[in-house]
């Protein structure tokens, strides 16, 4: 039997005289914050997919909403039930600076961009680097089919300064004449995407100077403009809103709808439809449309949430009903109950409704409980106090064997032509 918020309210009222139910309910979240700032209860460890899958040459992914800071315990390829890559070439968690330098493969970091927590992964060895297909570079008006615009999309042009890949991108303006427009190409060289239908995703880069005016982007891809697959996104794949600058759009092939009877072995048509607020968005850019095969990865991590909705089973941060369930066993439950009681008692004391001794009694009991708890429960997450945290077996070495893969590359490795083989 698991404890509920109702149980906690009952127990806190025994500890704190004159405590009301609303006081206890409002104090619970502060008690949770105090708890997870001191210990990491094993009952709060969770597993979740890293988005729908990981893809070659896509390095930023959204983190689970409840990930506690960077507290990743393990990552593995789901279907192989093992550590990401191999135990002999373990994935290393590093700080953001090392990720940004990109002088090592097989590393990841947890960091923040514009208030959004992201997982950045650089060339994991468990992912096939060449499992992708270029649909269109989108760097020329006529090189691979002719690009056209319509609706409120105007002034299509080549931009050789602002681009993600290759030599250029296509730039265009969105005016205020309507709330819909498009860019399309129906004379591309035929490509075969049949092998990507089951586990593939289409990616495209879209740059927006005023992102709040963009509502959604629909992708259509097919054998012609009467036979195609289509889907719509209203955010980039690694964020919950469009952002200023480059946004990486992702369209899962498994989620695509179809119109007519598209032939996946002869794709020659592609179109992007923009749904806007009707306000002007000048200087937008499109670049590099590719399709990639992904692998499903699972992360085990320390959650910041400690409540489970009794009806839906969803984990949540704050209580909304007294039937909400704690995942805790007795000693972890005792900590959250005492932390909540301490918050309530301090509030009563601060309002001259309790004595200082009442606060001290709970603090002393909590200190003893934490001392015993730390003896009985060891954190699985290793704080990144060193240069890296290694997932799996630590096999660092200085020879030329597999164990040497996590060494820093020598200075000047890129200029010497020692680039890795991921640029297929």
Q: Could you characterize the architecture of this molecule?
A:
With 424 residues, the protein is of the alpha+beta class. The chain has three domains: 98 residues, no CATH class; 92 residues, no CATH class; 162 residues, Galactose-binding lectin (Jelly Rolls). The protein contains five helices and 23 strands. Strands 8, 10, 11, 13, 16 and 19 form a six-stranded antiparallel beta sheet that branches. A six-stranded antiparallel beta sheet has the order 9-12-18-14-15-17, with no helix packed on it. The radius of gyration is 27 Å and the shape is elongated. The C terminus is likely disordered.
Provide a short characterization of the protein structure:
With 424 residues, the chain is α+β, with helices and mostly antiparallel strands.
């Amino acid at each position: 039997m698991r404890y509920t918020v109702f149980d906690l309210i009952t127990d806190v009222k025994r500890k704190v005289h004159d405590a009301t139910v609303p006081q206890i309910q409002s104090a619970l979240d502060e008690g949770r914050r105090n708890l997870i700032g001191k210990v990491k209860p094993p009952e709060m460890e969770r597993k979740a997919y890293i988005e729908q899958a990981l893809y070659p040459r896509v390095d930023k992914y959204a983190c689970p909403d409840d990930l506690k800071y960077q507290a990743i315990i393990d990552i593995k390829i789901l279907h192989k039930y093992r550590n990401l890559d191999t135990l002999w070439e373990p994935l290393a968690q590093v700080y953001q600076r090392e990720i940004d330098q990109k002088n090592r493969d097989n590393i990841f970091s947890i960091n923040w961009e514009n208030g959004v927590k992201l997982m950045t992964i650089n060339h994991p060895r468990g992912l096939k680097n060449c499992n992708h297909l270029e649909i269109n570079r989108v760097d020329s008006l006529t090189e691979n089919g002719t690009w056209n615009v319509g609706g409120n999309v105007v002034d299509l042009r080549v931009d050789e300064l602002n681009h993600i890949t290759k030599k250029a991108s296509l730039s265009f303006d969105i005016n205020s004449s309507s709330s819909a427009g498009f860019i399309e190409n129906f004379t591309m060289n035929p490509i075969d995407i049949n092998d990507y239908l089951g586990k593939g995703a289409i990616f495209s880069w879209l740059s927006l100077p005023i992102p709040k005016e963009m509502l959604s982007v629909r992708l259509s891809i097919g054998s012609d403009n009467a036979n195609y697959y289509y889907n719509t996104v209203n955010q980039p794949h690694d964020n919950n809103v469009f952002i200023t600058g480059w946004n990486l759009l992702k369209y899962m092939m498994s989620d695509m709808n179809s119109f007519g009877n598209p032939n996946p072995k002869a794709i020659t048509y592609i179109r992007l439809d923009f749904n806007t607020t009707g306000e002007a968005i000048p200087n937008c850019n499109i670049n590099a449309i590719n399709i990639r095969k992904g692998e499903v990865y699972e992360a085990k991590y320390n959650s910041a949430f400690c409540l489970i909705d009794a009806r839906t089973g969803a984990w949540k941060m704050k209580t909304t009903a007294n039937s909400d369930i704690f995942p805790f066993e007795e000693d972890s439950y005792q900590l959250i109950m005492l932390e909540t009681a301490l918050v309530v008692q301090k509030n009563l004391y601060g309002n001259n409704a309790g004595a200082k001794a009442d606060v001290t009694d709970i603090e002393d009991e909590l200190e003893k409980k934490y001392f015993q708890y730390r003896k009985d429960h060891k954190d699985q997450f290793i704080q990144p106090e060193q240069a890296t945290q290694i997932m799996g077996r630590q096999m660092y070495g200085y020879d030329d064997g597999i164990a040497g893969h996590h060494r820093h590359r020598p200075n000047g490795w890129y200029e010497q032509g020692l680039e890795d083989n991921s640029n297929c």
